[in-house]
Design brief:
There is one protein chain. The chain is an alpha+beta fold and 564 residues long. It folds into three domains: 154 residues, DNA ligase, ATP-dependent, N-terminal domain (DNA ligase i, domain 1, Orthogonal Bundle); 214 residues, D-amino Acid Aminotransferase, Chain A, domain 1 (2-Layer Sandwich); 121 residues, Nucleic acid-binding proteins (OB fold (Dihydrolipoamide Acetyltransferase, E2P)). Helix content is 35%, strand content 22%. The protein contains 20 helices and 23 strands. The strands form five sheets. Strands 4, 5, 6, 7, 8, 9, 10 and 11 form an eight-stranded mixed beta sheet that branches. Strands 15, 16, 17, 18, 19, 20 and 23 form a seven-stranded antiparallel beta sheet that branches. A four-stranded mixed beta sheet has the order 2-14-12-3, with no helix packed on it. A hairpin with an 8-residue loop joins strand 15 and strand 16. Helix 1 crosses helix 9, helix 2 crosses helix 10 and helix 5 packs across helix 6. The termini are far apart.
Amino acid sequence: MRRFADLYWRLDGTTSITEKVQALRDYFAAAHPDDAACALAVLGGARQSRAVPLPLLRRQAAAVAGIPAWLLEECYAQTGDLAETLALVLPPSDRLPPPDDPGPPSVTGDLGLAGHVARLAGLRGQKDEEVIGRFLVDTWRVLAPRERIVWHKLLTGGCRVGVSRSLLARALADLAGVDPATMIARLVARAPLDGAAFTRLLDATDAGPDGLRPYPFFLAAPLDGPVEALGPRSDWQAEWKWDGIRAQLVQRDGAVAVWTRGEDLATEAFPEIALAAAGLPTGTVLDGELLAVRGGHLLGFAPLQRRSGRRRVTRPLLVEVPCVFVAYDIVEADGEDLRALALTARRARMERVLSAVGAEPAAFLPPGATAPAGGPTATLWISPEVPGVGWDDLAARRVESRQRGVEGLILKRRDSPYGSGRTRGDWWKWKIEPLEIDAVLLYAQSGHGRRAALHTDYTLGVWHEGRLVTVAKAYSGLSDTEIVEVDRIVRATTRERHGPVRIVEPSLVFQIAFEGVAPSTRHKAGLALRFPRIVRWRRDKGIADAGGLADLARLCRPPLEVVP
């Protein structure tokens, strides 16, 4: 644990890519393989779960520290980081109270990261507060304060530090003596679960992962200049930017896997896709988009989220949110890696493979259009090219995006290979401008880490029948100077406090941008905004000038009627 804590603080203390890679290399070179495998899972963004309920953890910490619960909460409000707060208020190891049970401690010495994580896994579901209390005190006794902070983050399921998969791959590739692309492919296909698997990961003679592995995803970069700067229109293939879940469909030896861009295995969540993919030739890997489609209509991203991450999909949900796979690239055919081929060659190969199983170019109906009887019911589709002689023609088609239920266009250089990660220059996403509305600040909450003393988390609302209703949360988007000024206003206009949340007197109007609006039963307003963020502070407007719920409802596709 001591070695992992040192790594955590080295990573947290620098923004230098070179220093981060060196810190990772040093750790993995010296760590026990079991600890290394565990660290790789934590740093790589594996799902973490909370081992102890937070209220119980706070009560136990306050009791051991000999302070009232309210004082611990005040300390937390100032630091904004529970893990750090607990480490600060707890006494040193030699001043911890002796256990009520005089038996031997449950932990001694440095267990290592894997040992501590295993103990946390064994604690989950424990209801006996005395057992939990003894567990906490025994662990606090063997950890130094800086180690306690990291352990608290593991305990609460929030141990995250700024490390990308590419940085991990660079460090591990250096140790293994392979190129980073090979290491990324290994990490995607078979993240090591134990020390033996981690040792195999670093084996330079390993021929590489097989089975149902996906390939590292190739990502498009945002287009940040005039589209004409890309050169002749004829050099570029244009496709719709689908509003779905990026995925790779893998079929090998009759078995099928659906992998999302986060390298989550989603086969069980999309059984109809897996069933359709079973008819593909063996040794086929398609890159594309999972979309929710019913009656020829795109349902949008929100219904699709109801399907993702499920281990079991009920028949009613399959009927309510049917899904399709729209393919736009092929990276393996007949077991051959096609990534080095030009896009035009891959596209031709993909169309031949999919046409042989009856797939056609995707053509979905605009909102409000009636699907003809006996319309298409296919599950596998081909992403069509968007026509346009010149850039002006293509720009005119891009204007149709929101009406079509897509996010804009993807531009791909016709001679581009299939790369790895976000490589600028070959694939660009030319998204439509976001939707916007003016909203009023209703609640504010302190940030975390370096902004723990400032209110940077905002809940915003719009008008409906003479009152303000909450519609979105946004996390800053303002300048540092504006954040300080807003914080001062929040403190001066607070009506009520509920824990860390302040209810403020409505006075501030912010322009917020978002990608779309969808009906939602989880929100009191009945609507949910996708990716809301603050664009600017509207100092020129009063709260009466803010938008309304009806304005948002009209932005839905198809438009919604706001019910009182």
